[in-house]
Amino acid sequence: MSRKLLFSLIILGVSMNLFAAEDKLANIKQKIRSEFPAVAQMSTKQLQGLLSETLDNNVLLLDVREAEEFNVSHLKKAKLATTLKDALLILHDVPKDKRIVAYCSVGYRSAELVQKLTDQGYQNVYNLEGSIFEWANRGLPVFNQGKPVNKVHPYNWWWGRLLNKAYHAD
């Protein structure tokens, strides 16, 4: 087999794997939307735009994953808020109309937190659709201690199938 053909087959396999993960993640996002119909969703593209604006305080990011996941990588300047209690401690002096975006691995845990924050009176709170898995799969930056990294905690082997293997933390 020629190197060019082998390379083409590898690229095709990687692409098919990515498309399969994207299809599975799209199904998960639809299920989350149906289970949490009152939760406002924000796409990775929308969040990327907000974070690229010149205003540094235009959005507060809450990472709803466990500390072990957060310590591998997270979105820049995200605050770890595993529980509603954690989130409320972070938000104690934040205006109720502050734009808040929560994320986890795929969006379920964060949708649950967004619903609870909305019930607490926060008016401008969103779930990041596809969460950090979609963010990383799109090649958007993740950080550890303020420095860009290229690894994300896969949560577990089952959910990790939705994360491009190139981003799996060892």
Question: What topology does this entry show?
Answer:
Elements: H1 3-35, E1 41-42, H2 44-52, E2 60-63, H3 67-72, E3 79-80, H4 84-90, E4 100-103, H5 108-119, E5 125-128, H6 131-137, E6 142-144, E7 147-149
Parallel strand pairs: 1-5, 2-3, 2-4, 4-5
Antiparallel strand pairs: 6-7
Description:
With 170 residues, this protein is α/β, with parallel strands linked by helices. It has one domain (3-167): 3-Layer(aba) Sandwich (Oxidized Rhodanese, domain 1). The chain is built from six helices and seven strands, in the order αβαβαβαβαβαββ. It has helices at residues 3-35, 44-52, 67-72, 84-90, 108-119, 131-137; strands spanning 41-42, 60-63, 79-80, 100-103, 125-128, 142-144, 147-149. The strands form two sheets. The protein has a five-stranded parallel sheet. Strands 6-7 form a two-stranded antiparallel ribbon. Helix 3 links the parallel strand 2 (60-63) and strand 3. The relative contact order is 0.18. Residues 1-18 have low confidence and may be disordered.
Quick structural summary:
It contains 6 helices and 7 strands; from the N terminus they run H-E-H-E-H-E-H-E-H-E-H-E-E. The protein has 170 residues and is of the alpha/beta class. The strands form 2 sheets. The chain has a 5-stranded parallel sheet with strand order 1-5-4-2-3. Strands 6-7 form a two-stranded antiparallel sheet.
